[in-house]
Amino acid sequence: MIFNWNLFGRCFSRSDATTDLYPTKETDEKRMSPGDLPIRQRSVTAYWLLGLCNNYGYVVMLSAAVDIIKSTTSGESTLSANQTLNDANPGRNCTEMSTGAILLADIIPSLLIKIVAPFFPQLINIRVAIIVLLNALGFILVSQAKTIFMAITGVVTLAFGSGLGETSLLAHMAQYKNRRILSSWSSGTGAAGLCGAGSYMLLSYLSGDNRSQPLLIFLVVPVVMGIAFWMLLERPVVPGLSGTAQENNATGSPGTAHEDNATSLPGTGYENSATSLSETAYEDNVIDVCQAGSSSDMIDNTSEEFNPTIMDKVRAVPGLLKYMLPFGLVYLFEYFINQGLQELITFDYSWITTDNQYVSYQLLYQTGVFFSRSSIGLFRVHNTWALALLQAINVVLLGADAVYRFIPSIYIIWALILWEGCLGGLSYVNTYDR
């Protein structure tokens, strides 16, 4: 049998740009582009911790979705209220509210704050203080919730903090002008998935039936976030600024530092360091998305200044649809699986409860995402539509099992969910790589 290696190579190819995409300290110093500024390891570590802490609450809330709903609705089942469902699915453990409600409460507020926040002044110290307070308040509200309304309010509070943290810290990142900061942030957000789901699963095993009180332990997360920003992260020092301007830049004072940036460093990309996240990202990447032959080309071509109009942005959208559509479908399918189907796929085992089965699904999903997002140094997937198709097959298989329960073992479900997470991570990293 002759295997068509050329066909295989069209979808998967080994990457030879690992050090360009994920530079180490040594390669960063050797290959620093003209726009890059030197940065110390403590700042790189700080941004890793900031990425970890910013996404931690989001992951924990999704992992705890079943426990949150059951603890605030007294675990009420809909079986007695729906005899038809009871006859068709005897022993089916259903709840009044789906875990999808937690997903919506986790995503919609975050999306709204990301849209609104760039229009307000980038007072980074004030923003980080608000983020820390929102995260702490969210964990407290969810852990002490007696009603579903109070629990949802806590999830929404955490979502606001996460969304504000992402848009604020990514915008602040532009002042450091170094690729290692972005790589560190991305790694931290990826680790949040694995650490968040894993830590909640461990606490759920240790706490037994008391699932809400252990959430108070996660109050350490906003504390670590504050320490990372105010004590570990060095303030961005921009060459050419006066002493007063450096102090204002370090404290996040509006106006002076950013104005000095614009006058002292023309052509370096610091003219608009206080611009919104969307404007900064677009200025850095809009030309490269259309022209770069690889992601390494995109990294090295970020010094050109481009001020897009609204129509420029609108005209850029059609060219991005080939990346956006398969990427969006992959995540649509996997969130349907995670928050729509997983709670219905249960097994009657003495060694693991149905609630812990759901938490294990979340952990395996995050594990797959974490490792597949790190795969770009080993191989690339050029056909991202194939990933969307494979994820659709997962939806069909797991959806059919949620109804008919034909898969005999939880180990098969675990393998499918791990594979689901791998597809999501591959779609993410290869879409942005392209």
From TrEMBL:
Domain of life of the source: Eukaryota
Keywords assigned by UniProt, alphabetized: Lysosome, Membrane, Transmembrane, Transmembrane helix, Transport
Region of interest: Disordered: 244-270
Membrane topology designation: Multi-pass membrane protein
Subcellular location: Endomembrane system; Lysosome membrane
GO cellular component: endomembrane system; lysosomal membrane
Main location per the UniProt record: membrane
GO biological process: lysosome organization; regulation of intracellular pH
Feature: compositional bias, Polar residues: 244-254
TM segment ranges: 47-69, 124-142, 148-170, 182-203, 215-233, 320-337, 385-404, 411-429
Pfam families reported in the protein's UniProt record: CLN3 (PF02487)
InterPro entries the UniProt entry points to: Battenin_disease_Cln3, Battenin_disease_Cln3_subgr, MFS_trans_sf
Family (UniProt): Belongs to the battenin family.
Record protein name field: Battenin
Organism: Lygus hesperus (Western plant bug)
